Structure formats: C-alpha cells, structure tokens
Amino acid sequence: MAAALACALTLALGATASASPKPGKYTGSTSEKGAVTFTVSANGQAVLDFSAQDGYNRACHFSGGMGGIRTFTVAIASMAVAEPGAFSGTVAESDRPFRGTTTLEVKGKLTGPVASGTVTALGRDCGAGSPTPKASMYLETFRATKD
C-alpha cells in the first residue's frame, strides 16, 4: 500500500513538473503568419520582451478585403506568470491602422515548453459597414515553443 501511494505521488509530481513553464526563449507565429518571440524568466514567473508581428485579421469580412493595412509589432516588456502558467498584459497603440488610441491585450498560457494565446483590440468592433458588425475588429491567436 505504501509503495503504491509513493508511486502515485511520484507520478503526480512528475506530471505537475512537466506542465510548469519552462524558462528560456520561445518563438512561433500568429494566426496571420507573423512572428512571435519572448523569454520566460529563469524562475518561470515572468514573460519578458514579448513581441508579436500583427496585422488585420479579416474578422470584419469587408467586401474586397482591407488592402494596404500594414503589419505592426505588439511589444510588452514584462508580464507576470500566474498559476497555472497564465499571463496577460496590455499596451496602448496609437499608430495606424488604428484611429486614436487602441488598447491591445495579450493573453497567454504556458504549458511546459509550449505557449498559446490571443492578441485582441479591446472595445473595438467591426462597425456598421461590416457584415459582422459586432465581431472584434482585431483578434489573432499565437503559438510558440521553447527553442
């Protein structure tokens, strides 16, 4: 009985350890085929130097597409990693293609050597000129793995 309990405890601890965020550099891509990079701190408690190249995600379904909207980089210097591996942060973007200042939110999850998440424009929908007026104007996903 004691041996079985010890074995079960070892397996449970091993599963928890493998799901913990892995320190180091991560690289990957967004759903729009842009690059995403960041580093997980040595203690696994922070995402540092997050950078994602982003652009229009076609969520608004405008007839003929948007054309000419350039990509830009979403950059956040540091985001805390909470249990169980979740991280998030915001940054104000006032450059084109946005009018005025738009807040972009990054939300992610680290599971072992893999990260996934979203980049969203908060409070911005497609508007009346779109066949999907209530859809988020900007939403991309990302996936990255530890190098």
Structure description:
By secondary structure, the protein is mainly β. The protein has one domain: Lipocalin, CATH 2.40.128. The chain has an 8-stranded antiparallel beta barrel with strand order 1-2-3-4-5-6-7-8. A hairpin with a 2-residue loop joins β6 and β7. The protein starts with a helix and ends with a strand.
Blueprint (SSEs and pairs):
Layout: H1 2-19, E1 24-30, E2 35-40, E3 46-54, E4 72-82, E5 86-93, E6 102-111, E7 114-121, E8 139-146
Antiparallel strand pairs: 1-2, 1-8, 2-3, 3-4, 4-5, 5-6, 6-7, 7-8
Radius of gyration: 19 Å
Helix percent band: 10-25%
Which fold name is given in CATH as the topology? Lipocalin
Helix/strand/pairing class, anyone?
Answer: mainly beta
Give average pLDDT, whole number. Answer: 81
Specify the CATH class.
Mainly Beta
The largest sheet, given as strand count, sense and whether it forms a barrel, is:
8 strands, antiparallel, barrel
Order of helices and strands: HEEEEEEEE
Q: Give the termini distance in whole angstroms.
A: 42 Å
Assign the CATH architecture. Answer: Beta Barrel
Contiguous low-pLDDT stretches (5 residues minimum) are: 4-17
Number of helices: 1
* Topology, number of strands: 8
Q: What strand order characterises the main sheet?
A: 1-2-3-4-5-6-7-8
Shape verdict: elongated
Number of domains: 1
Keywords:
eight-stranded antiparallel β-barrel, 8 strands, Lipocalin, single chain, 12% helix, mainly beta, 1 helix, 147 residues
